[in-house]
Every structure is written in C-alpha cells, then in structure tokens.
Design brief:
binds zinc ion, 5-stranded mixed beta sheet, globular, 5 strands, Beta-carbonic Anhydrase, Chain A, about 50% helix
C-alpha cells in the first residue's frame, strides 16, 4: 500500500512535471540563448538599425505564437526619453525584449522586481541598462543639486534616485553631464547584479549577464561600457 501510494505519487509528480514542461515550450525557440549569444544578437540588431537595414517585422504572424507565453532574449532598462525606443534600436520583434523604462534609467524597487520576474520566470539571459546622450533627467538632477533648489511635483523622486551617480561623477574630470550619465548606468548595473536573492544568484550561476550601454543620439549606436 505504501509502495503503491509512493509510486502513484511519483507517477503523478512525473506526469505533472511532463505536462508543465509541455506547457513551457518557448514560443520563440530562437530566443533561447546563452547570455553572450543574447548580447551578440542585441548588438547585431543595433548594427542593422544604425545602417538603416532593419528587418521587416511581420507582427501579424508573430501574434499567434505569443498568445500562450513569452520568452524574451533580453531585458532593457532604458530612459523614457522618446528618442531611444529599444525595440527599434535593436531591431527586434514582439516577444524579444522585456523593457522597463523610467526617466533616468535607474532601477527602483518596481524595476528590480520586474527584472526578477523576467529572469526567474521567463529565463531572460541578459539585462542591458541603457543610458543616452543629453539625458534630461540626469541634467535636471545636476541642476537641482547645484542650485540646491527642489524640482516641482514628483520630480524630486527622480533627482533622489540619480543624485548618487551625479555626486560620484562630480569627482571626475571632463564633461559633468556625460560623466554622470555614464556613472548612473554603471551604478545601476552594479545594483541589478547584486540584487538579492534572485538576480545575484542568476549572475553567479552564469545564467545572467548584466551590462551597461550608452545610446548615441546622433548615430543610433549603442556603445557597451566596460564593466568595472
Ligand atoms: Zn534620459
């Protein structure tokens, strides 16, 4: 009886596992990539976008496959700036990128949680934190700190999130805005990499890479930043 019960349980568990596995067939098998391969694919997409040879995306025929699920091959934390548009900048279709956007591309709690979801549940192998030239949110933070004058409305929330990078960058030589934009990307890469308990574990297990990049407004080029 014991044995039967155990076997029945095992069978049920196996059956359950098998059907769960069937249900998890990725809708886009081409998106099941290693972190390095995913990053390479992102950069190849950016090269097409920069050269003006973006692919034609057949959204109509992709729709059906994506009804039952998603398996994006990359996540992007981008500024909300209307000139960036990650799906265009990497020449991607629907179901390819998991994108979080906020002015100043910083990782607040909701963004960390969203990234945990895409990594742990959807299996996304790479997160790119994407800053850009002439970022208004970073510029406003620099001005607010310099003038010691609070911005109106809820904007102080953005200023508080970006201020640490601005303060670090103030010690660096060169253009204050460019330095702060770069530092803000690096800080948020570090924050996401070390976010416990999910993202840091995925990085340690080699399942996830978190990288930083800068989008150049003039050319559309995304330059990856060396990781410190
Ligand atoms: Zn911006």
């Amino acid at each position: 009886m014991m044995l039967f019960a155990t076997s029945a349980l095992a069978a049920a568990a196996f059956g359950g596992a098998a059907s769960a596995k069937e249900a998890k067939v990725p809708p886009k098998p081409q998106n099941v990539l290693s972190p390095d391969a995913a990053l390479k694919r992102l950069m190849e997409g950016n090269a097409r976008y920069v050269s003006g040879v973006s692919r034609r995306h057949d959204f109509k025929h992709e729709r059906e496959a994506l009804v039952g699920g998603q398996n994006p091959y990359a996540a992007v934390l981008s500024c909300a700036d209307s000139r960036i548009a990650p799906e265009y900048a990497f020449d991607t279709g629907r179901g390819d990128l998991f994108v979080c956007r906020v002015a100043g591309n910083f990782a607040g709690d909701e963004t960390v949680a969203s990234m945990e979801y895409t990594v742990a549940v959807l299996g996304t192998p790479v997160i790119l934190v994407l800053g850009h030239d002439n970022c208004g949110a970073v510029d406003a933070t620099i001005k607010s700190l310099k003038d010691d004058k609070p911005q109106p409305g809820h904007i102080p929330l953005l200023v508080a999130a970006i201020a640490p990078a601005v303060k670090t960058a103030a010690q660096q030589s060169g253009n204050a805005l460019d330095n702060a934009i770069r530092q803000n990307v690096l800080d948020n890469v570090a924050k996401l990499k070390s976010a416990t308990p999910i993202l840091n574990a995925a990085v340690e297990q080699g399942k996830l890479k978190v990288v930083g990049g800068l989008y150049r407004l003039r050319t559309g080029t995304v330059e990856l930043l060396a990781q410190g």
